[in-house]
Every structure is written in structure tokens, then in C-alpha cells.
Design goal:
CATH class of the largest domain in chain B: Mainly Alpha
Number of helices of chain B: 18
Shape of chain A: elongated
Structural class of chain B: mainly alpha
Oligomer: heterodimer
Strand order of the largest sheet of chain A: 2-4-1-5
Number of strands of chain B: 0
Radius of gyration of chain A: 25 Å
Helix content of chain B: over 70%
Number of helices of chain A: 6
Strand content of chain B: under 5%
Largest interface: A-B, 69 and 71 residues
């Protein structure tokens, strides 16, 4: 939780955004984040993000589901309450496959979505600063963190030179907080 | 790297001269406007149907399952027919959102959101039937394996009916998660352009505080891909397990190994028909002809003719096997299906499912919207009859001629079915008003490769030689 000062640049074309990201990263300014209205392929690599491990988490959840289903049904039908159905063995694996499969999928899907929400820090009631209302519409928005060592004007001029269609300086909360989207925060009123 | 070029020979997925902003405007407009009179009329009638359904179900629960027409011989009637029909309809949504994503079918982007919504509402409708078929519905939770004071006594995990409980509930949950994870960014779009306070607040909640950072999108893509990978076998498993309800029992006409693929094909067949019915109306009323184009409708008609033909082959295979197996009971079952007192349902099924979809081999008819609309309804009538034929005509003349019977539904059964239509359309009308009916972010993602106005710019690339194009691409990316 920290309120910081940002130089914000808006681009209207992903073709312009990519070279701009490259230039900013080479310039040494602190790139806070880039906001896009849709997934722009290659942007994560251009920003130096690693591949996500979300699918690994999904695999682990899935295996947990498999083990839960097989273990539970196996325990019930071999030790907790063994019964004979149609003369088949107590541990009749083929008959357990459908439920095992369903629980694998269920655990993987639910676990992954929860992990996705946790990693992205999203939840009903969560609020984050929106640098430009059109960053979910048609603008690609780049925010650069400002500090005492760089001059505002210098950064803004630099961003303009990279092809930004709109630039400004904003004071914003850099993290998420609980809040209502129809209400302005204290720092925004100033 | 995303492919930046797609041949103009391929039909555009988005018609007209669109910018990213225009896409947002077009799709969010129905949410921000007051709905038209058609919407209110439709919504009102859906609510009426729903209330009638609630009354019919109340009647059944209060007086007991005896108010239905089912009897000792025909234990499964309209209720299970409707259950299988609704579950089947749901399958198209998952096929479009998951299987076509894995197959990289670009045209799915225009229709996936509405189709997935249809899936969720259809599964909600389907679930009602087995629950109220239980009779003593207040004991419905007995199907769940929870530690109870009766031993604990567990459900029979070897039973296809219990597999169904797990399959349907998993299917509903996973479809809902898949659908909603795609909706989060689009809700954020609605939120950020909201003019009224209430809309800002509600869509702020619904969007989970999404802002669209590069890392968030990277995870979103990974999530979508894995959920698609999970949903693909899931959707196949669900109707397979529904078919096991029949195939694992020793009833002539049900006890066949062909059932799983045959049911899955039939499910996709009827589901696509329902997508056509809904989207042909939606695109017209909501002015979305540029996003749900004739090309989309044709693509879905191709799926209909393919799956319709698979279903047709399955019907003929069943007949052949009845003869070839030389099992007299199997032969009798099919003899009564075709020529017994229910002959009309068999021939309705054959006409609607096998004969009429073959007209879609003609390109002119595939691209004819009124014809497609009529066909979509014909197919769904046919698929309803298929389930009726499988269930009722396999049961009504069983082993003892003394217990042969004829089954007709009573008004609470019909009312229950109508009520699920009410539930389905109430949900769909609310969805059409309050949700982005088309996946906004996904359309923007394909806009510059598949939009009509951008396609024209491909002409210059198209005229280049292959070598030159390859060299330029390699240089641009390194």
C-alpha cells in the first residue's frame, strides 16, 4: 500500500506500444505496468515477464482430485462398508473411473480459478487505480513510476517521443484496496 | 507471436469498418440502453412460463409423483426425456468455447459467450428433472456422499446414476467458471465507461477489480487454455455418462456400446441448433450482424450437417445390429419402435434429425437465415423425439405382455417442461440485457487479422511471393 506518482502514456496501437516498451526498458525508468484492453501476445515477453506457472498449479490440483476420488471410493468399498455389487470386486476400478475423472476436472478447474484470482489479486470488492478509463476499451496504457531522481517533464517528453497519443502525471495508489467503484478515494479528490 | 496475417480468401469474422472503440460501443450499447418493447414482452412471457412451471412442480411435490403419467412399466417419461434433451443442448456451448479454442477456430469468438451462457442455463434446466423425479425431493441430498448417521451409508459409486450426479454438477461448475473468467475483463470494460453510479458499483463488483495488466492477461490466457483443455474431455464425458444411464442397464434398445458417441453427436447436433435459434434472434434485435455474420451461421450449419449425419448413421447401425445380433428381444424393441403405437415419434425423429438436415449440403441453404432458423427448431423437435423414442419406446412393451402399457404425460409433466423454458429464457433475457453478449476482448484480439476493413490491407501481402513474405516475417521478428 503506497501512494506514488506516475507518468502515464497512452498508445492507440499495439504496433507503437512494442517499440515504446523496449525504449522505456532501455532508458532505465521504472516501468510500473502496462494495461491493455485485450491480451497482446508477446507483450509479457517484451516486459520481461516469465511464463506463468498457473498450469502447473492446475496439474497439482487435478492430481489431488484423482487421489481424493480413488482414495475415498476405495476406502469406502474395501474397508468402511464393503458391499458386493453384481458380483464385482470391492475395488472395481473401471466403475470408479467416471467419478475419478469428474473430480480431477473439478479440483483442477476450481483450484486454478481460485489461484488465478489470488495471483492477480482480484475479488469482488477489490478496487485498483485505473489510469485511463479507456484502458479497457481501446487504449494501451503505460505507467512509469516517478521519484525524486527524475524530472516529470523529462519523462513526459520522452514518452511523447515514443509515440504516445496522450500523456499525464497522476498520483495513485499502486496496490489494490477494498472499495466501492462508484466512490472516489481521498487521494483522488485532491 | 500472434500471426499478423490471414489471407483475404478467408471470410472476415467482423464485418464493417471497425476500430477497437467501435467494437466496445457496439457490444456494450444494449447494456447501456433501455431495452426495447420486444425485450419486455419476451421477458414477461418467460416469467409467466416460469411461474407455471413452479406451480406444476409444486403440484407434483405436494401430491406426489403419481400426478405424472408415468407408471410401473414406463418409469421414465417426459422428465428424463427433458433432462437428456436439456443436457444435450448445453453441449454446444462447451464445444464452441473449449474444443474450437483448441482447434484454433477463429469464428468461435463471435458466438462463444452466448453459447456458453446457453450451456449454463440449459444445464440448470436439465438438473431440475432428475431432482424432482426423485419424488421425495426433500431427501435429494441422499445422493451426496456425506458422513451420515446411518452407518455412514454411502451411495453406490458403481451406479451410472450416481456418476451422473458428479458429471452434471462438475459440468455446471466448470462451465460457470470458464464463462465467468472470460466475463471478468469485459465487465471491467463496462465498468470503466459506466455513466451511472449504480452501474459503476455493480460492474465494479462483477469485474473483481480487473485492470488488465500484461501479467494478468498472461495468466488469463493460460487459465483459458487449461480450462479449455479440461472442458474438452469433460463435455465428452458428460453425455457419455448420461448415455451410461441407459447403456449399463439390461433393457433391449438401451444395452448397446454405440450409445456414448451417438449421444455426444446428438448433443452437439441439438446444441448447435439451439445456438442458431437464439443467435439469429439476438443478432437481429441487438444489431450484432457485424459480429455474428452469415459466415458464423454457415460454420455452425456445417457442424449440424456433420453431427446430424453421425446421428443418422447411429440410428441405422442400431437397426442393423438388432437384425444382425439375432436377439429376438432387441428385434422386438425396434419392431415396436418403428411400427408400434409410438410409430409417429420414431418417424418424427427420423425426419427431423436424419432427412431434413441433409439439406444443409447446399451452400445456398446453409447461408439462408430464415431457412436456418426453421431448421434449428426442426432439429430440436427431432432431438426431443429421439430421447422420447429411446426412453419410452424401449420401456412401454417390456418382457411381460400383461404389463404392456401406453404412456401419455399429464399436465404437471408438460407444465414442468414449459417451466424450464421459462427458466431458460428468463435467464437468457437477463443475460442479453446485462451481460456483454459477445466476448469484447476476444473480438478485439482477432480484429486486425479477421476484420473486414483490415482484410483489404492484406492484398499487398497476398501479392508477395512466398519467399519474400517469409524473409520479411523472419526479419521483423528477430
Amino acid at each position: 500500500m503506497a501512494i506514488k506518482k506516475f507518468a502515464v502514456a497512452c498508445f492507440d496501437d499495439e504496433e507503437v506500444l512494442f517499440p515504446a516498451v523496449k525504449k522505456v526498458r532501455n532508458s532505465g525508468y521504472k516501468l510500473h505496468d502496462v494495461y491493455t484492453p485485450f491480451p497482446v501476445h508477446g507483450l509479457d515477453h517484451a516486459l520481461g515477464h516469465k511464463e506463468t506457472d498457473l498450469h502447473v498449479a492446475g496439474f497439482i490440483y487435478g492430481i489431488t482430485g484423482t487421489a481424493t476420488a480413488l482414495g475415498f471410493m476405495g476406502w469406502i468399498f474395501t474397508s468402511d462398508w464393503p458391499m458386493v455389487f453384481g458380483g464385482k470386486p470391492h475395488f472395481s476400478l473401471p466403475a470408479f473411473i467416471p467419478i475419478t475423472f469428474e473430480l480431477t476436472v473439478l479440483f483442477a478447474a476450481v483450484g486454478m480459478v481460485l489461484t488465478f484470482c489470488y495471483l492477480n489479486q482480484i475479488m469482488p470488492g477489490v478496487k485498483k487505480h485505473v489510469f485511463h478509463p479507456r484502458q479497457t476499451d481501446d487504449l494501451f496504457v503505460m505507467a512509469i513510476e516517478l521519484n525524486d531522481h527524475v524530472s516529470e517533464q523529462e519523462v513526459i517528453d520522452f514518452l511523447k517521443s515514443t509515440g504516445a497519443v496522450e500523456t499525464n502525471v497522476q498520483v495513485a495508489e499502486s496496490d489494490w484496496w477494498y472499495g466501492r467503484w462508484d466512490q472516489e478515494e481521498e487521494y483522488q479528490k485532491a | 507471436m500472434h500471426l499478423k496475417y490471414e489471407s483475404f480468401v478467408r471470410e472476415p469474422l467482423v464485418d464493417g469498418d471497425k476500430t477497437y472503440h467501435q467494437v466496445t460501443e457496439d457490444i456494450v450499447r444494449p447494456i447501456e440502453q433501455k431495452p426495447g418493447r420486444m425485450w419486455y414482452v419476451g421477458f414477461f412471457f418467460s416469467i409467466l412460463l416460469l411461474l407455471f412451471g413452479v406451480f406444476s412442480v409444486f403440484w407434483e411435490v405436494y401430491y406426489g409423483i403419481g400426478v405424472w403419467g408415468i407408471n410401473r412399466t414406463v418409469g421414465w417419461g417426459w422428465d428424463i426425456t427433458n433432462f437428456v434433451w436439456w443436457v444435450g443442448i448445453g453441449h454446444a456451448g462447451t464445444l464452441i468455447s473449449a474444443i474450437l479454442l483448441l482447434f484454433r477456430q477463429g469464428w468461435r469468438t463471435g458466438v462463444n459467450r452466448a453459447a456458453e451462457a446457453m450451456t449454463i442455463f440449459a444445464v440448470m434446466c436439465a438438473g431440475q428433472f432428475p431432482i424432482f423425479h426423485m419424488g421425495r425431493v426433500w431427501d435429494g441430498f441422499f445422493v451426496l456422499p456425506y458422513p451420515n448417521t446411518r452407518g455412514p451409508l454411502w451411495p453406490n459409486f458403481n451406479s451410472a446414476l450416481l456418476w451422473d450426479v458428479f458429471a452434471i454438477s462438475t459440468y455446471f461448475t466448470v462451465s460457470l467458471l470458464f464463462w465467468y473468467s472470460g466475463l471478468i475483463p469485459d465487465f471491467a470494460t463496462v465498468r470503466d465507461r459506466a455513466k451511472t453510479k449504480l452501474r459503476k458499483r455493480l460492474y465494479g463488483l462483477a469485474s473483481f477489480g480487473w485492470t488488465g495488466t500484461a501479467k494478468n492477461w498472461q495468466r488469463h490466457e493460460a487459465l483459458s487454455l487449461v480450462l479449455a483443455g479440461l472442458s474438452t474431455p469433460l463435455v465428452l464425458s458428460v453425455h457419455t455418462i448420461v448415455s451410461f444411464d441407459f447403456a449399463t442397464s439390461v433393457i433391449p434398445g438401451w444395452h448397446t456400446t454405440i450409445f456414448p458417441p451417438y449421444f455426444v453427436a446428438g448433443a452437439i447436433f441439438s446444441g448447435f441448433a439451439m445456438v442458431q435459434t437464439l443467435l439469429i434472434i439476438c443478432r437481429r434485435i441487438m444489431g450484432l450482424e457485424d459480429y455474428i455474420t452469415v459466415g458464423h451461421i454457415e460454420a455452425m450449419n456445417k457442424v449440424i450437417v456433420l453431427t446430424g449425419s453421425i446421428v443418422g448413421v447411429a440410428y441405422l447401425t442400431e437397426l442393423f445390429m438388432a437384425w444382425y445380433s439375432q436377439v429376438i428381444y432387441e428385434q422386438a424393441a425396434f419392431h415396436w419402435r418403428i411400427m408400434g403405437p409410438y410409430w409417429w415419434s420414431y418417424w418424427a425423429m427420423m425426419t427431423c434429425n436424419v432427412v431434413s438436415p441433409q439439406l444443409f449440403w447446399f451452400k445456398k441453404l446453409r447461408r439462408n437465415i430464415p431457412f436456418t432458423f426453421i431448421m434449428s427448431i426442426v432439429v430440436n423437435i427431432g432431438m426431443w423425439f429421439e430421447r422420447f423414442v429411446i426412453i419410452v419406446t424401449s420401456l412401454y412393451r417390456d418382457y411381460l405382455p400383461g404389463s404392456w402399457t401406453y404412456y401419455s404425460p399429464t399436465w404437471p409433466e408438460v407444465g414442468f417442461y414449459l417451466g424450464t423454458f421459462g427458466l431458460f429464457f428468463t435467464c437468457f433475457f437477463l443475460f442479453a440485457k446485462y451481460f456483454p453478449v459477445i466476448a469484447i476482448a476476444e473480438i478485439k484480439f482477432v480484429l486486425k487479422t479477421s476484420g473486414e476493413s483490415y482484410k483489404k490491407k492484406m492484398m499487398a501481402i497476398e501479392e508477395k511471393s512466398t519467399e519474400q513474405f517469409a524473409r520479411e516475417q523472419a526479419e521483423a521478428h528477430h
